[in-house]
Design brief:
The complex is a heterodimer of chains A (306) and B (323).
Chain A: H1 9-13, H2 17-28, H3 32-49, H4 51-54, E1 76-77, E2 83-84, H5 95-131, H6 133-147, H7 151-162, H8 166-193, H9 196-203, H10 208-244, H11 256-267, H12 273-300
Antiparallel strand pairs in A: 1-2
Helix pairs in contact in A: 3-5, 3-12, 5-6, 5-8, 5-10, 5-12, 6-8, 7-8, 8-10, 10-11, 10-12, 11-12
Chain B: H1 2-29, H2 33-37, H3 44-54, H4 60-72, H5 86-121, H6 126-140, H7 143-157, E1 170-172, E2 175-177, H8 182-215, H9 218-225, H10 230-268, H11 273-282, H12 286-314
Antiparallel strand pairs in B: 1-2
Helix pairs in contact in B: 1-12, 5-6, 5-8, 5-10, 5-12, 6-8, 7-8, 7-10, 8-10, 9-10, 10-11, 10-12, 11-12
Classes of the chains: A mainly alpha (306), B mainly alpha (323).
């Protein structure tokens, strides 16, 4: 790769990186649902990243809230002349602003937890497959033990013990999710380990560390990506659920789940928008990730045919 | 076979021991119940008395030893709040949760399997794509929000169903059931649907994938070549072959239904184990939390065991030597 290749047949046969990316994107969008999902995800990401500029009000700044404006219906104008197109909650907070910021928190937690869990799970899974023997047995025992209980139950116990807080929620999510990565990545790594290129690398006398991290891990990445899409969506849903139950984030950091919980008490009084709109945002976010993840699995997983 | 079951029982027992240690230590970390239970105005002496009565002054390992000895006798401590045995509280809430989880499972199977078969049979047709999209939605919708929206639609807007509680119950062999009364059924309807939705998505995807896979098999081609009518190919050749793995997976998912009932019960104030545990966590009622977790762990071990045994009985290809 470091060699300066002459503009030869080899270069002509292998399309440029950009061209390959373009072809891949075209193939990805061949499924209309996936294209829609990708578009939606892009929109949500933009909203989350630019939240402070897109929100007309800073929902954390208590000084800018006015209790006079509480529980305004969608489309009403508040005391400061602000147009609340999604209404306000019981603190007089503009719901659109709260949702935009909540989206940011939810997406951040989901990505953060998913990334850390992927790092830990992939490392453990690949090493388990590479070492084999007793270490493999012990590691997979732990994974199986954990996977025999539903994620929500484990997270519930952990958070009941740890108390609320953003870093505690992420810790609980990682503790729940690393096992899914470890299990799936291990089975991929087991297959990769037996392939010829690994024997070839080994016969060159290259050390274990480089075999694992330079060759096995990169070849397991498509699997990691597929699992990650599912797990990020799960993490977001789980965080929302835990926050709704009052076990997740503190009230000062309103994620989408907490916003929905705040509206819960108003539902029977007919003020349904306080719970409904944050929920719509949450569903859009999760659906977008799942649509993209589904397509990734179809394209990257060799077992699914097509 | 006997050896297989014995080995699995032993594994289950190991699992319970590990669980009991984790749960006990984990729950021990939860704040100090004394702060909540004792009136702030109580004197130092009163405080010490209550702590001694609850056994909170003894070292952790001694408390654990006592807990295990008690657990073996079916005594998981006395609720700090209700002042009755914690295990009894769990057992009292069990029928409501079981009724909810079973109803949700039945709904998931009855709705999910036909839709999945259809989607798998002609995967490129418009209805099949719609079904697949619906299954993704079922996967993506958070259970608690679906519950809230069902309340909005059916309780607040349409007034068709109550928003919470269990309604009238009938005792069958001493177990109160809602499903047998009209009022109870109306109360059960919304929570059961909201709990089932996630599993419907799962069943659809599973059935669809198995259907597609089985349709490619040689015996299906052979049956068609032999001139077997198409509906018979689907019903007696394909369906019969995929039913077993589906039932197995759904059986295994039953445990997760019980776990997710925590959320549904909280939304609909359904008086089951899940609502009990959430209420208990918020007031740090330690014995009830421990009792719930141990009992749920036991249920899971039991469900996994039953599913494994059923699977090995039904499918001769499963090797019992079991590694």
């Amino acid at each position: 790769m470091a060699l300066v290749a002459p503009a030869s047949a080899a270069a002509a046969r292998r399309p440029s990186r950009l061209e390959r990316a373009r072809r891949w994107a075209v193939a990805f969008c061949r499924s209309p649902q996936a294209a829609l999902g990708a578009l939606l995800l892009l929109a949500v990401a933009i909203v989350a990243i630019f939240a402070p500029w897109l929100a007309p009000q800073d929902p954390y700044d208590l000084a800018s809230l006015d209790l006079m404006d509480s529980r305004l219906r969608p489309g009403e104008v508040g005391s400061g002349g602000m147009y609340h197109w999604l209404g306000t909650d019981d603190q007089g907070r503009d719901l659109w602003s709260a949702i935009v910021h909540g989206l940011r928190i939810s997406l951040g937690i989901g990505l953060g937890a998913g990334l850390i869990a992927a790092l830990i799970g992939t490392t453990v899974g690949v090493l388990s497959a590479y070492w084999g023997g007793a270490a493999d047995t012990v590691i997979m025992r732990v994974v199986d033990f954990q996977l025999s209980f539903p994620a929500i139950l484990i997270a519930l116990v952990l958070l009941a013990a740890l108390g609320p807080g953003i870093e505690k929620v992420i810790f609980a999510l990682v503790a729940v999710q690393w096992a899914y990565f470890a299990r799936t990545v291990r089975s991929t790594a087991l297959v990769e380990r037996e392939k010829d290129y690994i024997s070839a690398v080994r016969s060159l006398g290259i050390g274990s560390r480089r075999i694992v991290f330079g060759h096995l891990v990169p070849n397991c990445l498509p699997t990691v990506l597929v699992v990650a899409a599912v797990q990020v969506a799960n993490a977001i849903a789980l965080e929302a659920t835990l926050s709704f139950l009052g076990l997740g984030l503190p009230v000062t950091q309103p994620s989408l789940g907490l916003l929905i919980a705040n509206g819960f008490q108003h539902i029977l009084a007919g003020r349904t928008w306080i719970s409904a709109y944050p929920g719509v945002a949450l569903v859009l976010l999760i659906v977008a990730i799942n649509l993209v993840g589904d397509r990734l699995r179809d394209m990257l997983d060799p077992r699914s045919g097509t | 076979m006997t050896l297989f079951i014995l080995r699995r029982l032993l594994q289950g027992a190991q699992l319970m021991i590990v669980m009991s240690i984790i749960v006990f230590i984990g729950v021990y970390l939860i704040g100090n119940p004394v702060d909540i239970l004792i009136h702030p105005a109580a004197t130092q002496q009163q405080k010490a008395e209550i702590i001694a009565r609850l056994g909170l002054d003894r070292p952790l390992w001694e408390q654990y030893g006592q807990f295990v000895m008690g657990a073996l006798r079916g005594d998981l401590g006395t609720s700090y709040v209700y002042r009755v045995p914690a295990f009894g509280l769990i057992l009292k809430a069990l029928p409501a949760t079981m009724e909810l989880a079973l109803s949700a499972m039945v709904i998931a199977i009855v709705v999910g399997i036909p839709l999945g078969l259809w989607a798998g049979y002609r995967p490129h047709s418009i209805p099949a794509q719609a079904i697949t999209a619906f299954s993704i939605l079922g996967f993506s919708l958070p259970t608690f929000w679906v519950g809230l929206m069902l309340i909005v639609l059916f309780s607040v807007d349409l007034g068709l169903a109550p928003s919470g509680g269990r309604g009238a119950t009938v005792e069958v062999f001493g177990i109160p059931l809602s499903i047998l009364t009209l009022d109870g059924l109306r109360h059960l309807m919304l929570p059961a649907i909201s709990l089932a939705l996630f599993k419907i998505g799962l069943v659809i995807r599973l059935t669809r994938a198995s259907m597609q896979e089985t349709l490619r098999q040689d015996f299906v081609r052979f049956a068609r070549a032999k001139g077997v009518p198409e509906h018979r190919v689907v019903v007696s050749h394909v369906f019969r072959n995929i039913l077993l793995p589906i039932v197995t997976v759904v059986g295994m998912e039953f445990g997760s239904l019980i776990a997710f009932a925590v959320v549904t019960e909280t939304v609909f104030s359904w008086p089951g184990m899940g609502k009990l545990i959430i209420d208990s966590i918020s007031v740090l009622d330690r014995p009830v939390i421990v009792a719930y977790l141990m009992f749920t762990a036991f249920l899971f071990v039991l469900i996994n065991l039953l599913v494994d045994v059923a699977y090995s009985v039904l499918d001769p290809r499963v090797r019992l030597a079991g590694r």
